[in-house]
Amino acid sequence: DDTAMGLRILRLHGYNVSSDVLKTFRDENGEFFCFLGQTQRGVTDMLNVNRCSHVAFPGETIMEEAKTCTERYLRNALEDVGAFDKWALKKNIRGEVEYALKYPWHRSMPRLEARSYIEHYGPNDVWLGKTMYMMPYISNEKYLELVKLDFNHVQSLHQKELRDLRRWWTSSGFTELKFTRERVTEIYFSPASFMFEPEFATCRAVYTKTSNFTVILDDLYDAHGTLDDLKLFSDSVKKWDLSLVDRMPEDMKICFMGFYNTFNEIAEEGRKRQGRDVLGYIRNVWEIQLEAYTKEAEWSAARYVPSFDEYIENASVSIALGTVVLISALFTGEILTDDVLSKIGRGSRFLQLMGLTGRLVNDTKTYEAERGQGEVASAVQCYMKDHPEIPEEEALKHVYTVMENALDELNREFVNNREVPDSCRRLVFETARIMQLFYMDGDGLTLSHETEIKEHVKNCLFHPVA
Fold first, then answer.
1. What range defines the domain where residue 153 resides?
2. What's the count of helices (H) and strands (E) in the chain, helices before strands?
3. Dihedral of CA 182/188/189/190: which sign?
4. For the chain, which end, N or C, has fewer CB atoms within 10 Å of the first or last residue's CB respectively?
5. Terpene synthase N-terminal domain spans which residues (predicted)?
């Protein structure tokens, strides 16, 4: 219990500790125990080992074994009422177990996890800490009261920010665009769920505005614009020139003018915060993004199915997470030198893994619907092109395996990449995690009203803690 918790906490605070310590707590049958000679295991012990197992690095067999063993134990415990009555010293350990199994670490956003903990918190829990460790206030009614006040206060700030962003969407004329999706609330939920502190208000606004443009332009390049129109839009961004606007269709004019005005404003705010001109940096980030969109549009027009590797190289960029993070990072409260930016830049493994995991989880939940709409390229389809002898189920399994391995590597980058400021590391890593949540059961962005994302948004932004 303590060892697993210590391993997890040390890793999350940048200490590169070995997972071999868990081998001490495994018997000859591969089952985990709390102490030598233990005949029965406790729910809280196994829950802590399970939480620890998700902070795994590539190739750590012991962590994978711990995850498999504890998941099996905890799922069995949920079916055995007596397991909780016998072992649990906490008010609602069953609720904690249910949450941990449904939302393991890569899907558990800090704001949602905090709310879940508040709801499961027992101020009168008879913990060993209150007696054996002489910690009488470890569970306390006053703590609970204060944390509820704080949660609701921050939520009220988020609601004000969201109202401002909705006004921005309307004043930019985007309500007139019939080809795209309006997802301001769902998109704002993303940064609010992990960069939730009041001091990150501007970062959340920039993250939301940039993300909305990735949705608008993805829809524009994916299905709405002709290749000639898309080339004109890309040239206008590259030249940062309003003279080409008159040649654009009306809806594309709205897109470009909103884009031009918004990112000029963001660049001016970025200049104040970074002490240097950042417009060129922002434009370059977007030029790379539009090149990736254009390549996908050309593939679609030609009905071309690339190889898996060729697809992944472009699709890890076209998912647009890198664009959102690289611009938002300017507003995390840190002065970012070119050297620091390069460590989370397009060439960094950290950013590549974020884009890769985001693309793969997206594809696993959207490829069937997009194939029905005529799309020919996805991770699954491209892998099947490389391996025509395998069935679709095996290709899908391979994509999941690649993603799980990449998430383990992302863990290592997050823990060990200490040359990057903590707020920037959070931004990259949590953006990867929010994608795992959005696409847990389906396309949580496009079909947000049909998935659990709808409830997460309400709990994070609208429903105060009672």
1. 149-462
2. 21, 0
3. positive
4. C
5. 2-101
